[in-house]
Specification:
The chain is an alpha/beta fold. 31% of the residues lie in helices and 24% in strands. Residues 330-343 have low confidence and may be disordered.
Length: 509
């Protein structure tokens, strides 16, 4: 299989670059800038892409790489910081720009460059830089410029090294997709062998060979990733697979029943459901800190799951629904903990498996969804919206109780039902209800009430790195509000969250 290396120098768009490469049917792998050059040489990559990053190349504490990477004979494309890094490594000059460029900028390209084949001479690109290449390295030719950036693109055609100061991977760059296509096919001479049909057949074959006649146990959350992993494994080994579904009582209304019905009817596997909502409520009693709630829910899920596994007579392999973003080691240094995630499961020391199987570890989320559709998983499961690991536990602000869970489940069901009826759900990336645990005064049936406020959160986004609040028509919001206050007990007020990300996050906790 052909591979393109995305070498991460701390840019926020590293995953987006890899996704854009895969959109052109070429497999992209992300590795940190600390990866040894021997590893890169031995993996026979068709090309290398240097990502952007927030640093300055002339600051020696910034991420750098050995100059020898430009002499491996592998085509290279540098993006933003990666562009400046190529100039620095090849003995060019990088300085603070007299005028920084941010956002949409008009770019003029050299039409003779292989990188700009099929690209208009002038087009809009997305810039974000305070440094610039003041002197290109010897052997490099300037192949594009803007009014304020005399070297917005450069190339050494003989060595197949190309660099652009802008971000072709973002949709704001008018011909960004074409530029990446040109690098892959005109420069790297890729054939484009990365397709989902091949992935399913090849993965099923590998799973059968690896597992043989042994058993496999998978922790099924009901989310997209674990569901598709279960379907792949069921196709490969059938009833050798046991899916353990821990229902902690913090799922959306009727969701546990929905997951059980689908997997017991669609796939030939062993399905084990553990209902333990009361246990989780007991552990969460009196807890209001969101990070503590996440840790308790994660710990108890871990305990319940592994206690059940210990009851199994024979253990073979352990499977997880890990996807590629869960595996990536970023080129950045330490980052602040915004919230704890439970993407990969640690196996207890007293539980011994033959090994760990992660059939989706090479895929991004949208690729996982495509595989799920091909495997026959219902659309409403494959395309279900992101749902936090701790479930409704982080959509109830403050202490979690059974009554609050019921209120939130009912309100959220009304929202989802109404969006499905009017067809507006397709315009939204994610939408849900939050219970802030704030009570307000109301009037219902000529009587004063003092009951719950429910908040609606809905966003649109391409990648969830940033998100805008959704401009849902007022008549739809009015219908939802009216239904919630009429159909859900103990709710007398509905509000709409109009905060973008940043400064807010999509989830409230």
């Amino acid at each position: 299989m052909e591979k393109i290396l995305v070498l991460d120098f701390g840019g926020q768009y590293n995953q987006l670059i890899a996704r854009r490469v895969r959109d052109h049917h070429v497999y992209a792998q992300i590795l940190p800038y600390t990866t040894p050059i021997e590893t890169i040489r031995d993996n026979h990559y068709k090309g290398i892409i240097f990502t952007g990053g927030p640093n300055s190349v002339y600051d020696m504490s910034s991420p750098h790489y050995a100059k020898e990477i430009l002499d491996l004979g592998i085509p290279v494309l540098g993006i933003c910081y990666g562009c400046q890094l190529i100039a620095w490594m090849a003995d060019g000059e990088v300085k603070t720009a007299p005028k920084s460029e941010y956002g949409k900028i008009e770019f003029t390209a050299d039409k003779n460059s292989p990188l700009f084949k099929g690209v208009d001479k002038t087009s809009i690109v997305w810039m974000s830089h305070t440094d610039y290449i003041s002197r290109p390295p010897q052997g490099f030719k300037i192949s594009g410029h803007t009014d304020d950036c005399p070297c917005a693109a450069m190339e050494n055609r003989e060595k197949k090294i190309y660099a652009v100061q802008f971000h072709p991977e973002v949709t704001h760059s008018q011909f960004g997709s074409q530029i990446l296509y040109n690098f892959l096919y005109e420069v790297c001479c890729c054939s484009g062998d990365w397709v989902m049909d091949n992935f399913i057949d090849q993965t099923v074959s590998k799973l059968r060979e690896q597992i043989g006649d042994k058993k496999v146990i998978l922790g099924l959350s009901g989310g997209v990733d674990s569901s598709v992993a279960a379907a792949l494994l069921a196709k490969a080994v059938g009833r050798q697979l046991t899916c353990v579904f821990v229902d902690q009582g913090l799922m959306r209304k009727d969701e546990g029943d929905f997951v059980e019905k689908n997997f017991t009817s669609l796939f030939d596997m062993n399905f084990l459901r553990i209902n333990c909502g009361s246990l989780f409520l007991e552990k969460l009693r009196g807890v209001v800190d969101p990070e503590q709630k996440r840790k308790i829910i994660g710990t108890e899920f871990f305990n319940v799951f592994w206690n059940e596994i210990r009851k199994q007579e024979k253990l073979g392999y352990f499977a997880q629904g890990t996807i590629y973003p869960d595996c990536i080691e970023s080129g950045k240094g330490d980052a602040d903990v915004i919230k704890t995630h439970h993407n990969r499961v640690k196996i207890p020391d007293d539980v011994e498996f033959l090994g760990v199987i992660e059939p989706l570890c090479d895929l991004f989320k949208d690729e996982v969804r495509k595989v799920g559709e091909m495997l026959g998983i219902p659309k409403e499961l494959v395309w279900r919206q992101p749902f936090p690991g701790p479930g409704l536990g982080v959509r109830i602000i403050g202490e979690i109780t059974a009554d609050k869970i019921k209120v939130l489940q009912e309100a959220d069901w009304v929202l989802r039902d109404e969006m499905a009826k009017n067809g507006y759900a397709e315009h939204l990336s994610q939408f849900f209800c939050v219970l802030p645990c704030v009570k307000t005064v109301g009037v219902m049936g000529d009587h004063r009430t003092y009951d719950h406020l429910v908040a609606i959160r809905a966003v649109t986004t391409d990648d969830f790195m940033t998100a805008d609040w959704a401009k849902i028509p007022y008549d739809i919001l009015a219908k939802v509000s009216n239904r919630i206050t009429n159909e859900v007990e103990h709710v007398n007020r509905v509000v709409y969250d109009i905060t973008s990300k940043p400064p807010g996050t999509v989830e409230w906790e």
